[in-house]
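Project outcomes to date are best conveyed with an example. Our students and postdoctoral researchers have been running inverse folding experiments weekly, and each run begins with a structure described purely in tokens. The record below, which covers 76 residues, was selected by the lab manager from last quarter's runs and is presented without edits.
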């Protein structure tokens, strides 16, 4: 069975960007710590890690190496 999947790099990069934006909102005082930490774990960490693993099926080596390592930034 040969199933095609979409490009998971979009989800990984969106998770990185949204987590960074929400962190800046927290630094400016626009949002509390709860939403920032929750989004960092769920969308910034877990989604990027899963997207990195999905890149393995598409044999995109650069994104496969970068996305799981950006999880460290999302969980800091």
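After processing, the design step wrote out the following sequence:
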């Amino acid at each position: 069975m040969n199933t095609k999947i979409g490009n998971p790099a979009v989800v990984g990069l969106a998770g990185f960007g949204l987590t960074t934006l929400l962190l800046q909102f927290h630094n400016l005082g626009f949002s509390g710590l709860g939403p920032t930490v929750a989004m960092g774990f769920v969308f910034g960490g877990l989604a990027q890690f899963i997207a990195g693993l999905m890149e393995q099926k598409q044999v995109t080596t650069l994104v496969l190496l970068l996305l799981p390592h950006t999880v460290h930034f999302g969980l800091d």
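The radius of gyration is 14 Å. The first helix runs from residue 9 to 28. The training component of this project remains on track.
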